Amino acid sequence: MTFNNFVIRPITADDVENYFLFIESNRERIAPYFPVIAQSTLNVESTLEYIKKRVQRAEKKEYITFVIVDIEVHKIIGAIFLKAIDWKSMKSEIGSFVDQGYEGKGIVSQGLSMAINHCFWVLELNKVFFKIHQDNLRSIRIAEKLGFTKEGVLRQDFKGLDGKYVDMMYYGLLKEDKGA
């Protein structure tokens, strides 16, 4: 899937070094929100193992990782995750992050929109939802911009790296909300 000078595609084993560099340059920013990724990609070798597991889970349609690539510089600048895909309820959690230098340019919104369409029209899911850290105002704005509805607060639903529990905002989007 291509938009402007960017492509969104599933992660592959060929992305190891590029993905590691992307995470490394954004590690401090993403660690509070994505601690598993931050801790699973500490060097190229661990990043290879992380990506192998993600590819295996994607083949089973359990967890799909997309990367956003800047075509001009051949650099991974973002990631989108379809997590906890629930085939009984036909829903998936979605999450994302982008390189700090690419924030505020609509890239994540466009990439998420394409991933959401993939959820509804390719995977035929009924619902996509965000669980957003209560302090992540940028992600809350993106969810609202994309038409998600705030459905509630999940109290103490996430344990941060500091060991403290935080509330998560739950935003949902139904396939019928997209005109289906």
General description of the model:
The protein is α+β, with helices and mostly antiparallel strands. It has one domain (2-178): Aminopeptidase (3-Layer(aba) Sandwich). Helices cover 34% and strands 34% of the residues. The chain has helices at residues 16-30, 35-40, 44-59, 107-122, 137-145, and strands spanning 2-3, 6-10, 64-70, 75-86, 91-98, 127-133, 149-159, 165-174. It has an eight-stranded mixed beta sheet, with helices on both faces. The chain is globular, with a radius of gyration of 16 Å. The two termini are 21 Å apart. The mean pLDDT is 94.
Major sheet details: 8 strands, mixed
Helix content: 25-40%
Annotated CATH topology: Aminopeptidase
Strands, count: 8
Q: Estimate nothing, just give the exact number of structural domains.
A: 1
User: What's the gyration radius in Å?
Assistant: 16 Å
Order of helices and strands: EEHHHEEEHEHEE
Q: What CATH architecture do you see?
A: 3-Layer(aba) Sandwich
Kindly, what is the distance between the CA atoms of the first and last residues, rounded to a whole number of angstroms? 21 Å
The geometry reads as globular
The CATH first-level class comes to: Alpha Beta
